[in-house]
Amino acid sequence: MNIHELLHLPEGRRIEFKRELPSKADLCRTIVAFSNDAGGTLFVGVQDDPREVFGVAEADLLSLEETIASMIHDNIVPLIQPDISTFNVDDKLILSVQILRGNTPPYYLKSLGKSGGTYIRVGSSNRVATEEMIVEMERLKRNVSFDSEPIPGISANDLDLSRFRILYESIVKSALDATTLAKLHLTQLHNGEVLATNALVLLSNGPQKRERFPYGKTECARFKGTTSDVFIDQKTLDGNILDQVEQAYEFVLRHINKEASVKGVYTRSSWEYPTDAIREAIRNAIVHRDYSLSGKDIKIAIYDDMVEITNPGQLLPSIDFTQMESRQSDIRNKVIAPVFKHLGLIDQWGNGLKLIHDSLEQYPDIEFRWRETGLQFQLQFVKKATAAPVEETPGDDQATEQVITAGSRLESRLESRLESRLAAKVFLFLKKDPRGKAELAKLLGHKTVSGELNKQITRLLENGSIERTIPEKPNSRLQKYRLSEQGIELLKCMRDEVSE
To answer: For the packed helices 162-172 and 241-254, what is the interaxial angle rounded to 10 degrees?
Structure first.
C-alpha cells in the first residue's frame, strides 16, 4: 500500500496513529507490542479520531527521530532496530516508525522486567502479556510448539486412544503402534522415558484429556433470532479433536436450511450457506487454535442471519485474510497439523483460505467477515439481506444492492470498533431518531428488554457513543437514547471508511 492508503486504514493490530510524539511509556509499550506480535507501524503527526493529518514541524524532524531511536534503545530489551522514515502528505510531514516482528521474543521494558513489562498487541491496544503468553513467546524463540511438548508422568499407555486408533488404522491401513506415535512426534523420549505430548492428549478421549485440557472443547449453539439471548439447541463437544471436527460440522448442518430448485427435469438442492467453506473454517479453528491459552474454547454459534466461529488465539502474523484467493500457509501446532494432513482431514498446505474463497464465490448472498476480538479470532458467514438495518432506494435494484452492501460493511466496522454485534445494531437504530429500550427490543426482534440489551446500552453510554434524552432522570419511563456528538462523529468516520 502507498502512504495515502495506509493513512485511511483503521487503527489495529499493525498500525497506530499519534498526533504528537507519545510519552516514553506509551511509545515503548507500542514498540514492544509490535515486536512481540506481527510487527507494525506508528505514524506520528496523524490524529486518529477523527482522522486528520497535522504533520510535524520540519525543524523538529531530526530531533524527533533521535528521541524515538534513543527511547527504544535505552528502554527495551532485547534490542529493537526501528525503521524511521519521513513522508510528505499534502505538504505536511509525518514520521513513520516501522517495527518488524521480532526474532527473539519476548521483548519487554527494562524498568518493569519480563513479567510486568512484556506487552502484546490486542486490536488497537497494548496489553500486559500473561505468564502463559510469555512462555509461548519463549517457545517461539526456540522454534518449539506447545503441542509438541512432552507431559511429565503421562505415557501413551495412560491414554484412551481407541477412537484415534480406529480412525487412523481405517484410513492409513497400518497400525498405530509405538513406532508410529514416535514417527508422528506424538510421543517423545525425555530423560529415558517415552512421554505423551500435548498433541497426543488432545487426540485422546477420557479423563486425562478432560483434566489436562478442560477447555480443549468446542461449544456449539443454535440461537433464536439474531442475538444470544435464547437457545434453541446447544452441544458441548469435549472428546478428541478429530471427532470434534465432524461433530461440529454435523451440528451446523442440522441447523441450517437446504433448499431445492427445479431446472428442467432436474431437481437440485443447495444449502443456504457455503458448507465447504464452513467445514474448512471449523477444521482450521481446531487445527490452528492456541491450546496454550487456558479458559478458552472454540465456539460455533448459529443465528437466524449468520454462522459464527470463534477461535482462541490471535491470527497467525503471516496470514492475510484480505488475500484469501492466494495460497498461504503457517502452522501454530506443528504436530497436530501434520497428523490431520496425514489423515486427509486438511488439504495440502496453503489451500485452506483459497478453498473458503472459492466456495464463497458460489454464494453471492453471503458476506464473509473476519476480525480479531481480544485474544480470539472470529469468522462470520452473514446473510447480506439481513446484515444491517439500511434504507433502500425504491426502483433502483443496483442502487439498493450498493446500499445493502455498504450498510453491511458499516455494521461490520462498527461491530469491530464497539466489540459487540448487538451494540453495533443498537447504535445504527439510533442514527436517526431517539428510541427507548422497548422500541429497540422490538426492532431487534426481542419480545422483552433482555439483560444483554441493557448491558450493551450501558456500555454505549459509558464509552460516550450514545446519551440519554432525559439525563437528569436516568430511570424515567419516558427515557430514550440518541447518538452523542462523539457517536455522530464515529458514524461519520465509519461511513467515510466504507465509502472509500
So the answer is: 80
The helix (H) or strand (E) run that includes residue 235 is: strand 231-237
Strands 266-271 and 258-263: what pairing? antiparallel
Question: Which has the closest alpha carbon to 419: 455, 447, 392, 445?
Answer: 455
Q: What are phi and psi of 125, to 5 degrees?
A: -120, 160
pTM strictly above 0.85: no
pLDDT digits (tens, 9 = 90+) for 257-312: 987 655 555 556 789 999 999 999 999 999 999 999 888 899 999 999 999 999 99
Structural domains in the chain, CATH included, are 3-138 (3.30.950.30), 146-212 (no CATH), 218-387 (3.30.565.60), 415-499 (1.10.10.10)
The count of C-alpha atoms lying within 13 angstroms of the C-alpha of 454, restricted to the half-sphere facing its C-beta, is 5
Candidates 409, 334, 329; CA nearest to 368 is 409
Backbone angles phi, psi at 370, to 5 degrees: -145, 150
What is the distance between the alpha carbons of residues 163 and 110, in angstroms, rounded to a whole number? 49
Closest CA to 285 of 303, 302, 273, 298: 298
Neighbours of 201 (CB within 10 A): 25
Instruction: Provide CB contacts within 8 A for 59, sequence distance 6+.
Output: none
- Residue pointed to by grid coordinates 479453528: 285
pLDDT in tens, 41-87: 999 999 998 899 999 999 999 999 999 999 999 999 999 999 999 99
- Measured CA to CA, the distance from residue 191 to residue 187 in angstroms comes to 13
User: How far, in Å, CA of 119 to CA of 123, rounded?
Assistant: 13
Output the CA torsion sign for 193, 199, 203, 207: positive
Residue 496 neighbours by CB under 8 Å, 6+ apart: none
Q: Please measure the distance between the N-terminal and C-terminal CA atoms of the chain and give it in whole angstroms.
A: 14
Could you tell me where the beta strands, DSSP code E, fall in 242-365?
258-263, 266-271, 298-302, 306-312
For residues 45 and 54, the answer to whether their CB atoms sit within 8 Å is: yes
List, as one string, the DSSP characters of 101-152.
PPSSPPPEETTTHHHHHBEEEETTEEEEPPHHHHHHHHHHHHT--GGG-B-T
Yes or no: say if 423 and 456 are a contact pair by the CB < 8 Å rule: yes
- 208 closest CA partner among 165, 290, 149, 151: 151
What percent of the chain has pLDDT above 70? 88
What's the burial of 175, exposed, middle or buried (CB within 10 Å: 0-12/13-18/19+)? exposed
Helix (H) or strand (E) holding 212: helix 207-212
**Per-chain mean pLDDT for the chain:** 86
For 300, the grid coordinates are 460455533
pLDDT, tens only, 131-149: 989 999 999 889 899 999 9
